[in-house]
C-alpha cells in the first residue's frame, strides 16, 4: 500500500457553520507534515474525515489511494491518535491494546513491542483510567503504531508530555518518516514543528492557506530583515527610520530592521558613529512565519490584538 494521504476538495457544514471549504492537500511518504492553523481552521474535522469518523458533503479523503472505511484491518494501513481520552478507563493499558490488536488479527507479541516502544512497560498492567495525560498520550501513540502502518495521523501528540517525552516523540516522528511512512501531525506548538516537520500545511477558515516546505517558509519570512544589536537603541532607531527602514524593538538592546540591507545598516551606523555589536541577516522562527500567513485567517482574536479602542 502506498504511504500517502490525499485530501481533495473537502467541504463540510455543521448546521450554519462551514467547517471545511475546499480543503485540499497531499501528505507524502518519507516526510513529517505539520498540519497547523488557528482555532476553527478545520484541522480536527479534516482528520476525522480522513479516518472515516465524519462524512464530507463534497470531496474525498484517501489513505494509500483508498477510502479509510474500505480498508480491511485499517490499523495496519493507518494509525491515528485523535483523542487520548478515547479509552475504557477500567481496562489496563495492555488489555486496551490487546482488545485493539484482536480486532485487527494481531497478537500479544506486537502489543508488548509497542508498549515498550512508547515507554509504558512498567505501567502496562495499570488501569488506564488512572493515567496522567502524558501517559494517555503514550498509550494512544502505542495504539496508532499497533498495526505497524505506513500512514500515521497524530493530533497534538506532545500535549501533556514532560520535556523528556517531548524529546522522545520528536525523535520517534523523525524516525518513522525516515522509514518511508507518511506522518501527519496537527499541533499548536510551532517550536516543536520547526524541529520536527519537513513540510507544513497551513489551514485557515476551512481551506489551505499554504502548502510549503518548512525551510522554504522560514527563508521567505526571513527575507529582507536584519537583526541589529546596539547599546544606543534610540539613536539607531531614529537614524534608520530617517533612512526609510521599518524598525521594531525585539529586546533590551536588539532591533529588527526591514527595508535596508545589512551592509546599508552598517554603513549608516558607521557614518554617524552609532555603536553596535552585531548586524546579521534575520532568521525568522516558524512561529513568526506562521503568524504572518494566518493573520487574516484567525476567527477569534482579542480586542487588543485587533487594535480596538474604547
Describe the structure in your own words:
The protein has 310 residues and is α/β, with parallel strands linked by helices. The protein folds into two domains: 5-210, P-loop containing nucleotide triphosphate hydrolases (Rossmann fold); 225-281. Helix content is 35%, strand content 26%. The protein contains eleven helices and 13 strands. The strands form three sheets. The chain has a six-stranded mixed beta sheet with strand order 5-6-7-3-8-9, with helices on both faces. The longest helix is centred in the middle third of the chain and has 16 residues, at 163-178. The chain is elongated and about 75 Å long. The N and C termini lie far apart (59 Å). The model is unreliable at 299-310 (pLDDT under 50).
Write the layout of secondary structure elements.
Layout: E1 5-14, E2 17-27, E3 31-36, H1 43-50, E4 58-63, E5 78-81, H2 93-103, H3 108-117, H4 133-145, E6 151-155, H5 163-178, E7 182-186, H6 190-196, E8 199-204, E9 207-213, H7 214-222, E10 225-229, H8 233-242, E11 246-251, E12 254-258, H9 262-271, E13 278-281, H10 286-294, H11 303-306
Helix pairs in contact: 2-3, 3-4, 7-10
Amino acid at each position: 500500500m502506498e504511504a500517502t494521504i490525499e485530501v481533495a476538495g473537502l467541504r463540510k457544514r455543521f448546521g450554519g457553520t462551514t467547517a471545511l471549504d475546499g480543503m485540499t492537500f497531499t501528505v507524502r511518504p518519507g516526510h513529517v507534515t505539520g498540519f497547523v492553523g488557528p482555532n476553527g481552521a478545520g484541522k480536527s474535522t479534516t482528520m476525522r474525515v480522513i479516518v472515516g469518523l465524519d462524512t464530507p458533503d463534497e470531496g474525498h479523503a484517501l489513505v494509500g489511494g483508498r477510502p479509510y472505511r474500505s480498508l480491511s484491518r485499517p490499523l495496519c494501513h493507518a494509525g491515528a491518535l485523535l483523542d487520548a481520552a478515547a479509552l475504557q478507563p477500567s481496562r489496563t493499558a495492555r488489555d486496551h491494546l490487546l482488545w485493539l490488536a484482536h480486532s485487527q488479527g494481531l497478537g500479544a507479541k506486537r502489543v508488548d513491542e509497542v508498549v515498550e516502544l512508547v515507554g509504558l512497560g512498567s505501567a502496562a498492567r495499570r488501569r488506564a483510567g488512572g493515567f496522567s495525560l502524558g501517559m494517555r498520550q503514550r498509550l494512544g501513540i502505542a495504539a496508532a503504531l499497533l498495526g505497524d502502518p505506513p500512514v500515521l495521523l497524530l493530533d497534538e501528540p506532545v500535549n501533556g508530555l514532560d520535556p523528556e517525552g517531548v524529546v522522545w516523540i520528536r525523535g520517534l516522528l523523525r524516525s518513522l518518516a525516515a522509514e518511508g511512512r507518511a506522518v501527519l501531525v496537527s499541533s499548536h506548538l510551532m517550536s516543536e514543528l520547526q524541529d520536527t516537520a519537513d513540510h507544513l500545511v497551513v489551514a485557515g477558515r476551512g481551506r489551505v492557506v499554504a502548502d510549503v516546505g518548512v525551510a522554504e517558509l522560514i527563508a521567505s519570512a526571513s527575507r529582507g530583515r536584519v537583526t541589529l544589536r546596539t547599546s544606543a537603541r534610540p539613536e539607531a532607531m531614529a537614524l534608520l527610520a530617517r533612512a526609510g527602514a521599518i524598525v521594531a524593538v525585539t529586546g533590551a538592546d536588539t532591533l529588527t530592521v526591514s527595508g535596508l540591507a545589512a551592509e546599508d545598516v552598517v554603513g549608516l551606523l558607521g557614518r554617524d558613529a552609532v555603536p553596535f555589536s552585531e548586524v546579521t541577516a534575520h532568521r525568522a522562527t516558524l512561529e513568526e512565519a506562521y503568524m504572518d500567513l494566518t493573520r487574516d485567517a484567525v476567527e477569534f482574536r482579542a480586542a487588543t490584538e485587533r487594535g480596538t479602542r474604547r
